[in-house]
Design brief:
Length: 315
């Protein structure tokens, strides 16, 4: 039993319409689910992913309309990486970002891979990472109906970067409880991986004692989720986490997957999520994300929920 890799990353937006426009029209990702936050149904929860919404490809957003600015710092998920197929793809993206006036940095080599850091319109910290030299967890398949050519498209989530004031407690949780292994250090970042390894299974930890604690808002990340095979394994992970003394959510049915949440010592929220059943559970694979999808336990409240949402056209 082991963590298979990154499952998804969930972030915050203050404007679902503009968020949808950027992630589908500029980044070319597919909206695979338009639903609501199950803990607060007054806000959208948007899921962008590859062609089929495979685990390991999902970047999700909660819409919190009154979210303020993010003030970066420690105790945070400070960068989310997105995988592309090769080095040449980064040149394509550099030119595309120029065309769409996306805030970006020069192409840089990090951990022996070419990368391109950029920000979305709300300051969400993102990085494209080339899979040209990658060996490990398989990537997804770019959306064939995307405005981005398939051979240049985003194929899934890459390394997730954490910034903390004291790295040891976080590293201890990842290694001793979740089974990650330390595989290297680049500059001031410690690299850990799990499962088959590679870009889809890495956590990079940066220790910074010169920064205040991050004040999250729009453009910040809420949590990172790690992949587990199924509900049976998730039950076993619950026992492991409880025995380690960490308060946790217990198993939560998110309908598209089952989850368990806990905070590590630097207060970063970790989720363990099952690979299935997946986003085609309640929609045909050809029409994912076109309508507001609600899990069965919320369906009876559809009219009430829809009345609180600003319509978002996604067809």
């Amino acid at each position: 039993m082991h963590i298979k890799g990154i499952h998804h990353v969930s972030a915050i937006t203050a404007n679902a319409k503009e968020n949808y426009d950027f992630y589908t029209n500029v980044l070319g990702m597919r909206l695979v689910k338009k639903t609501v936050n199950q803990d607060d149904t007054s806000m959208y929860h948007l899921f962008y992913a590859d062609e089929k919404g495979n685990p390991g490809t999902d970047l999700t957003f909660f819409e919190i309309k009154r979210a303020g600015n993010t003030y970066p710092g420690t105790h945070s998920i400070s960068t989310t990486s997105l995988r592309v197929q090769n080095d040449d793809s980064l040149t394509f993206w550099q030119e595309r970002f120029d065309e769409y006036n996306v805030d970006q940095d020069p192409i840089t080599v990090r951990a022996d891979r070419k990368t391109l850091s950029f920000r979305d319109p709300e300051g969400q910290r993102l990085m494209l990472v080339s899979d040209e030299q990658n060996h490990g967890v398989a990537s997804g398949t770019p959306w064939s109906r995307s405005k981005v050519p398939v051979d240049k498209g985003i194929t899934g989530l890459g390394p997730v970067h954490l910034t903390v004031s004291n790295a040891l407690p976080t590293i201890t949780v990842l290694k001793d409880i979740l089974g990650f292994k330390e595989v290297g250090k680049v500059e001031n970042r410690i690299i850990l991986e799990t499962g088959e390894g590679g870009t889809g299974a890495e956590i990079h930890i940066e220790e910074r004692t010169d920064l205040p604690r991050e004040k999250p808002g729009r453009g910040s990340v809420h949590h990172v989720a790690f992949r587990v095979e199924d509900e049976e394994e998730l039950e076993q992970w619950k026992e492991i986490i409880q025995k380690a003394g960490f308060p946790n959510s217990g198993l939560v049915d998110r309908y598209y997957f089952k989850s368990l949440y806990f905070r590590e010592p630097n207060h970063i929220l970790f989720e363990l999520a099952t690979d299935g059943p997946g986003f085609a559970t309640d929609e045909h694979i050809d029409h994912l994300g076109e309508e507001l999808a609600l899990p069965p336990f919320l369906e009876s409240k559809r009219k009430e929920i829809e009345a609180k949402l600003i319509p978002l056209e996604t067809k």
